[in-house]
Amino acid sequence: YIRFLSGGANERMRIDSTGNVGIGEVNPDTLLHISSTGPAFLTIEADTDNVTETDNAGIVLKQDGGAVVGRIGYASNTNSLEITNQYAENLYLGTNNSIDVTINSSGNVGIGTSPTQKLEVAGNIQLDASNAELNIKSGGTGTTGAINFNFASDTTNYAGLDFVYDTRASVGPRFWSQNGYDLTIDSGDALHLRTDGVDKLTILNAGNVGINDTSPSYKLDVNGT
Q1: What is the pLDDT of residues 29-54, one digit of tens each?
Q2: How far is it, in rounded angstroms, from Cα 49 to Cα 46?
Q3: What span, in angstroms and rounded, lies between the C-alpha atoms of 219 and 135?
Q4: 176-183 long-range contacts, Cβ below 8 Å, gap at least 24?
Q5: How many other CB atoms are found less than 10 A from the CB of residue 112?
Q6: Cβ distance 163 to 148 under 8 Å?
Q7: In 10 A of CB 223, how many CB atoms?
Q8: Residue 9, pLDDT score
Q9: What is the DSSP secondary-structure string of 150-200?
Q10: pLDDT band for position 160 (cuts 50, 70, 90)
Q11: Predicted pLDDT of residue 131
């Protein structure tokens, strides 16, 4: 082996006969083995002159003749930190020697499971806040669909489900479990039941019901036979 000394006989680095390098380690068991009785940090610094944004710090991992590549570091030309598998395989995050989060090559995310959808969770989901919300929005022109789970700060007396279905209403049906109402509609709006994008049943705030009529004038208005 080759020893690198400083301060007399104080060994700082060693290269053994297999080519392993030890820094603070006299028996390195990997290609690079860093050891310390105190904190041990590996610093990789790029773009010290702060001139070229594409000079990023990172670690590139390769195997299988360079066909499989992974990256940990700052994404090219950005200050965004990334953990990326460039190969069409999974990315795992875990603790206690188990896989907790899986991101597969399709971009599906699984928590405690191997996902087949954009998000799959094996277990319970809990939102902790004075007004916890889960919003699911759809894209497209003229639509702001969302589902909001709102729990008031007084959780003993109030709990509910608000449903925003399209741009015709700020809030659609509200289902409550503690305030005495099973279904409420915001003032000035209506509940529309639709198929194929066409209103089939309309219930106005005043209580008028329309079948094939979006503006019923009577308690029951039927446009048709």
Answers
A1: 999 999 999 999 999 999 999 988 88
A2: 9
A3: 34
A4: none
A5: 14
A6: yes
A7: 10
A8: 79
A9: ---S-TTT--EEEEE-STT-SS--EEESSSS-S-B--TT--EEEEETTEEE
A10: low
A11: 61
